[in-house]
Amino acid sequence: MAEIDLSPAKDGGVLKEILKEGVGDETPTTGCKVKVHYTGTLLDGTKFDSSKDRDKPFKFDLGRGSVIKAWDIGVASMKKGEIAVLTCAPEYAYGKTGSSPSIPPDATLKFEIELLDWYGEDLSPSKDKSIQKFQIQEGKRYSKPEEGAQVNIHLVGKYDGQVFEERDVEFTLGEGEDVGIVEGVEIALQHFLSEEKSRLLIKSKYAFKEEGNAKFNIPPNADVEYEVELKSFESDSGIWSMKSPEKIEQAKIQKEKGTKYLTANKINLAVKVYKKVFKYLDPVSDFEGDLREQRNNIALATHLNLALCYLKTDDNLLAKEECTKALELDSQNEKALFRRGQAHLGLASPEIAIKDFQEVLKVQPKNAAASKQIIICNNFIKKQLAKEKKLYANMFDKFAQEDKQKEEEKLKDQPDVMHGTLGEWGQEERPGGRDATAFEKENPNILMLNANGSGEFKNM
User: Fold this and answer.
1) Does residue 451 register a pLDDT over 50?
2) Chain-centre distance for alpha carbon 158
3) Listed residue (191, 226, 222, 186) closest to 204, CA to CA
4) Residue 301 near residue 334, CB atoms below 8 Å
5) Segment 284-323, tens digit of pLDDT
6) Diameter of the chain measured on Cα atoms
7) DSSP-derived secondary structure letter, 436
8) pLDDT band at 423; cut points 50, 70, 90
9) What does 299-343 look like in DSSP terms, one character per residue?
């Protein structure tokens, strides 16, 4: 097959000759992890390297500059299973310096490459390939959106090859749930450049999870595919340039937004937004006088609302921590004491919880809810004690039974002194319990003790 010029400038810098056609139509894209076998030679046929000789395929991230330029260009044109020879001019290989000792300066190289396999750029937090990206269109070489940025995207969602949604949508990154954006798309967008277009393969745990989506006829635990274009975004990274009054206003806006989500029972969103409040409130040293008081009031309310969110999701340890932070700002805060008591109770620590509820009553003696919680704590403690008592009683009964069984087994191992023929000391025992006399030992067939044990001798 004739050579193909793959060089961007069509200067013959990367020539490709296909030795064996690959399968399918897809080729790997920038960011994909590819696996290849290769053999590299000089133009005179001298071999300088081969993965086949090591019997170990070579893996690399395509388009990230981790290999010579000719490889990034050439492998991106290959299909799975394809074998091709790349002829690489020096400027697309090791240039004027070469790579001592095997590759001389200004060397044109040949590589026979077999594309064994590839998968998409793995964007999943745990690197388990549950979010894979395949680039369709490169983006502009600018920054990428971070959580909190305002993004404008076009997306097409597919399940089992069928489109289930297509739309333009603008939202705050990190709050996509509010407009029906799945978590996998939000995570992936933080790796997009402006105007980039990519295909995403998303496992169910980052899509519609165990619930599925009845509206789109997507069953539980279904993997989905999205084609996403990041049309534009506005960064949320200008906090450092804000004056203290501006930070206070932004913190208020975020707190109110979080409360809106909390009221709508969108707890995950509420937590995300409440956490953003503190981006505007720290460090404390930025606020003085009246602004310091406003700052602390907003922080107090946010800690209390976060505690409430965590109580709703049964994250009692986090709830306790938020209440403690609130109490650092207001040691007599009734809500903070009450919610921390609830958290301790949720953590099965009624003895500690009861102290918080008692502190609530010191602040507000008429707090009926706190009084009720104290009763619940006392009942909890009683149940715990009864359970422990029963547990210990059963334990002692078990030990006693085991001791009894051991004693019985020990007795079974003792010799049967009433019916055995040998006594404890190895002597023959006589009826009545006495030892045999010397005479009886010498004349065993002449004399015997009569049957009634009277001790009278009888002739045989």
Assistant:
1) no
2) 26
3) 222
4) no
5) 999 999 999 999 999 999 999 999 999 999 999 999 999 9
6) 134
7) P
8) very low
9) HHHHHHHHHHHHHHTT-HHHHHHHHHHHHHH-TT-HHHHHHHHHH
Type of residue at 347: L
Give the CA distances from residue 305 to residues 160, 238, 274, 422, in Å, rounded to whole numbers and listed in that order.
41, 26, 8, 86
Average confidence score pLDDT of the chain: 88
Tokens representing 103 are: 């590759």
* Alpha-carbon torsion angle 312, 316, 320, 326, nearest 10: -20
Catalytic residue list: 38, 48-49, 68, 94, 111
| Of the candidates 301, 304, 312, the residue with the CA atom closest to the CA atom of residue 265 | 312
Q: How distant, in Å, are the alpha carbons of 335, 377, 448, 452 from that of 366?
A: 14, 18, 99, 93
- Burial grade of 281 (CB within 10 A; 0-12, 13-18, 19 or more): buried
Contact 35, 118 (CB under 8 A): yes
Considering only CA atoms, which of 387, 306, 303, 392 is closest in space to residue 348? 387
Would you say the pTM of this structure is higher than 0.70? no
Start-to-end CA distance of the chain, whole Å, equals 122
Torsion of CA 10, 11, 12, 16, to 10 degrees: -30
Contact 30, 135 (CB under 8 A): yes
Number of residues that make up the chain: 460
pLDDT tens digit sequence for 183-204: 999 999 999 999 999 999 999 9
Beta bridge partners of 88: 14, 109
For residue 425 the two structure tokens come to 């000391």
Q: How far apart, in whole angstroms, are the C-alpha atoms of residue 14 and residue 88?
A: 5
